[in-house]
UniProtKB/TrEMBL annotation:
Keywords: Cytochrome c-type biogenesis, Membrane, Transmembrane, Transmembrane helix. InterPro entries: Cyt_c_bgen_Ccs1/CcsB/ResB, ResB-like_domain. PANTHER family: CYTOCHROME C BIOGENESIS PROTEIN CCS1, CHLOROPLASTIC, RESB-LIKE DOMAIN-CONTAINING PROTEIN. GO terms for cellular component: membrane. This is ResB-like domain-containing protein. It is found in: Membrane. Pfam families: ResB (PF05140). It comes from Prevotella heparinolytica.
Length: 444
């Protein structure tokens, strides 16, 4: 072991050493605080790191470790270590960045876990030194290789250092009001260089449905299977739920409950807080029992109304599920721009370096909500990440275009294992001779 040239054994020992070092750092000083790398610290770290790679590349013939880091054995070893710890990250539930790790080791907060960060730096350093070694001397045939590796290096490095500059904020706006303040993950109030005025908020709901529930537990029936429901859409006015035949006699999309002397009924109500109500008959096909009455899902102003069929079963209308909710907004920027647009789920608004997403609304009021909650995300390093991804895509296309065409001549399909082993031994011995020659030249 530790005989030149270094191989996978030495690589995995280096990985074990980094893991032990990371654990000691984790238990002594805590996890990595990425907020310390906010601008301009991350830019300074980037310049120093690139200079360090350049110095290591220049000293690769004097310091054997620096030269080995650009070898494929170091690349494979680092890649395996990163893959293993990434699998652990996927198996362990991660906690938000604002919370401490759920266990002593720190697996539940992997992005701040020192062994993960050290493995990541090892992989990046191997990638960077490989790029420097291959690029000198420069040849046209190396372009696909360099595009792939340089693109990956740029994407990984910029995504890591730019993490501290990413802002994820939440803004609560009210109808007819302009808001320019938002809160971060810690609840800190932050003033923004833009303001949002909520002009209108609309919710499109799925059609109402009827279900049977157990009066004691409140569970939908049947309990041991997928609950049955009757969807009231497209003029549907009859159906069957288990042993009950349902016939809808009257349907009021905008209704209000009105209490009488002995019962509760619904009437038309075209105003805020209106609910959906139906008057129906339910007949049991087994014993012929007949029940009729109003059923409603209710709203923040009016309670829901269920129809009791038996002592064990009731017919209810659950709350209507939102299908689509849209916010009509006017955005004002510090530069004086005024933009009117709509924001909905999966259709964010991009303005002044911010992505504005539709997050939520006042769920207690449902379709009558006068509150819209937006998520604002700003990532100034994202264009650099995209540049790296585009370079990798171009490199992949170049590899595909420059792939050798035609069938190669087959010399001998039979492979002698002994000859392969001899060739490998010769290559290893040759590499050792080259390294010994370089060391002698350095001594001279």
């Amino acid at each position: 072991m530790w005989k030149k040239p270094w191989g996978y054994k030495e690589g995995f020992i280096c990985g074990a050493g980094l893991c032990v070092t990371g654990l000691l750092l984790q238990w002594t000083i805590g996890g990595v605080c990425w907020q310390l790398f906010a601008w301009p610290v991350n830019f300074i770290v980037l310049i120093l790191y690139l200079c360090l790679l350049a110095v290591m590349h220049a000293l690769r013939k004097r310091v054997y470790c620096f030269g080995w880091l650009s070898h494929y054995t170091a690349a494979v070893s680092s890649l395996i270590c990163v893959a293993v710890i990434t699998v652990v990250m996927g198996l362990v539930r991660q906690v938000p960045s604002t919370q401490p790790p759920a266990e002593l080791i720190g697996f539940s907060k992997m992005l701040s876990f020192w062994p993960f960060v050290l493995f990541y730096v090892w992989l990046l350093s191997t990638l960077g030194l490989t790029i420097l070694r291959v690029s000198s001397p420069f040849e046209m045939r190396k372009i696909p290789f360099l595009l792939n590796h340089v693109g990956l290096f740029i994407a990984l490095l910029s995504a890591t250092l730019g993490n501290a500059d990413m802002q994820r904020l939440k803004m609560i706006t009210r109808l007819g009001q302009t808001e320019w303040r938002a809160t971060d993950e810690n609840g800190k109030l932050i003033e923004l260089p833009l303001a949002i005025e909520l002009k209108n908020f609309t919710i499109h709901e799925y059609p109402p449905k009827l279900m049977l529930i157990d009066n004691e537990t409140g569970q939908a029936l049947p309990k041991d299977d997928i609950p049955e429901h009757l969807l009231l859409e497209g003029g549907v006015d009859k159906g069957k739920l288990q042993d009950w035949e349902i016939v809808v006699l009257q349907s009021i999309p905008m209704a209000a409950s009105v209490a009488t002397e002995d019962t509760l009924k619904f009437s038309e109500f075209h105003s805020m807080g209106a609910t959906y109500a139906v008057y129906l008959k339910a007949k049991n096909v087994k014993d012929g029992r007949l029940c009729e009455g109003w059923v409603s899902c209710g709203s923040f102003m009016f309670p829901y109304k269920a129809l009791r069929l038996t002592e064990q079963v009731s017919l209810v209308m659950p709350e209507r599920e939102p299908q689509r909710f849209v916010s009509d907004v006017t955005v004002y920027t510090r530069e004086g721009s005024v933009i009117e647009d709509t924001i909905e789920v999966n259709h964010p608004l991009k303005i002044a370096g911010w992505n504005i997403y539709q997050l939520s609304y006042d769920e207690t009021k449902g379709r009558w909500s006068d509150v819209s909650v937006f998520g604002l995300v700003r990532d100034p390093w994202l264009p650099v990440v995209y540049i790296g991804i585009v370079m990798m895509m171009i490199g992949a296309v170049c590899l595909f275009v420059n792939a050798p065409k035609g069938k190669e001549k087959k010399v001998d399909n039979k492979v002698n294992p002994e000859e392969m082993f001899e060739k490998e031994e010769v290559s290893v011995q040759t590499e050792r001779i080259l390294w010994s020659r370089e060391e002698k030249e350095e001594c001279v």
